[in-house]
Amino acid sequence: MAALPPPPEGIVLAHFIVSDDVERSRRFYTEVLGGRLAYSGPGGLTYVALSNSWIIINVGGGPTDDKPAVTLETPPDPDRVSSFLNIRVKDIATVYAEWSRRGANFLTEPKQHPYETRCYIRDPDGHLIEVGQTTDPEGDWTPPRWPTGTPGEGLVLTHFIVSQDVERSRRFYTEVLGGRVVFSGRPDGQPTNVALSNSWIVISVGGGPTDDKPTVTLETPPDPDRVSSFVNVRVKDIATVYAEWSARGANFLTEPKQHQYEIRCYIRDPDGHIIEVGQTTDLEGDWAPARWPASTSAEEFGRAVAG
């Protein structure tokens, strides 16, 4: 295996979702899931801090100069899913009871699987959210410690992506983006969890409906130019990140483009998933963390969450 690059500094991961009603979505992620509003900007751009990461909520739109063929839209078919927010919890019974009482739309009650107990929620726009508690650390991942003193104690946010080739995807997120493998399932590496800055990318193959998502099929992006959610990487120095990741083989759609409040560009991973890379240039119009994490160590994830 090729030597891994050093862990990148000055980046944080967030989970971007497209919403038809940003205010309604903000209420769901704060009043139901327990997040905290971290930023509300022009045009409705909203950041909700939850545990180790952020949910970025905004309306959709057509192609732009930095993603010339890509349209952002709410899920056209909520039962065909390629990526989603995956929330790992310490006590799923308590989370299920509390979030149900607050109005969460669970597809089923929690179901026991070989290595975990899990269930799924739909947010108001139809985005799928997995909620899972590992019951056998030999077969699934659990964080090295649970965050405290932040919204959502006893839970961590990860980003789940469907891949046709888990090993190829693992190489991309480690050898190109600089993450570190923290878990690889047996015997075939499914799922694989890659720690990157304050969060984790969970990589696994697709599949049809299951008892906890009876109508949902997981698949790689059927049309990579129609996107509803994605990893959003906020960076301190986009020029350096663009140069380093390009040198390692990242497939950027364009060079970084200056917009009103940020400089940004987009990558496609090997399965066609979009990743935004952005540097805020005007705090009046976009968000930046109060401090930047110093490494990608999973032990440091709590340090990335600030007001």
Which key phrases capture this entry?
about 300 residues, mainly beta, 2,3-Dihydroxybiphenyl 1,2-Dioxygenase, domain 1, nine-stranded mixed sheet, about 15% helix, about 35% strand, globular, disordered C terminus
Helix and strand layout, with pairings?
Elements (H helix, E strand, L loop, with lengths): L10 E8 L3 H11 L3 E5 L5 E5 L2 E6 L12 E2 L7 E2 L1 E7 L2 H10 L3 E2 L4 E2 L3 E7 L5 E7 L20 E8 L3 H11 L3 E5 L7 E5 L2 E6 L12 E2 L7 E2 L1 E7 L2 H10 L3 E2 L4 E2 L3 E7 L5 E7 L27
Parallel strand pairs: 1-4, 5-17, 6-16, 7-11, 12-15, 18-22
Antiparallel strand pairs: 1-18, 2-3, 3-4, 7-12, 8-10, 9-10, 10-11, 13-14, 14-15, 19-21, 20-21, 21-22
Q: State the major sheet.
A: 9 strands, mixed
Number of domains: 1
What separation lies between the terminal Cα atoms?
39 Å
Order of helices and strands: EHEEEEEEHEEEEEHEEEEEEHEEEE
Tally of contiguous helical segments? 4
CATH architecture type? Roll
What name does the CATH topology carry?
2,3-Dihydroxybiphenyl 1,2-Dioxygenase, domain 1
Percent helix, as a range, is 10-25%
Shape: globular
The Cα radius of gyration reads 18 Å
Report the CATH C-level class.
Alpha Beta
How confident overall, as mean pLDDT? 92
CATH superfamily: 2,3-Dihydroxybiphenyl 1,2-Dioxygenase, domain 1
Number of strands: 22
Detail the poorly predicted runs: 296-307
Strand content: 25-35%
| Structure class | mainly beta
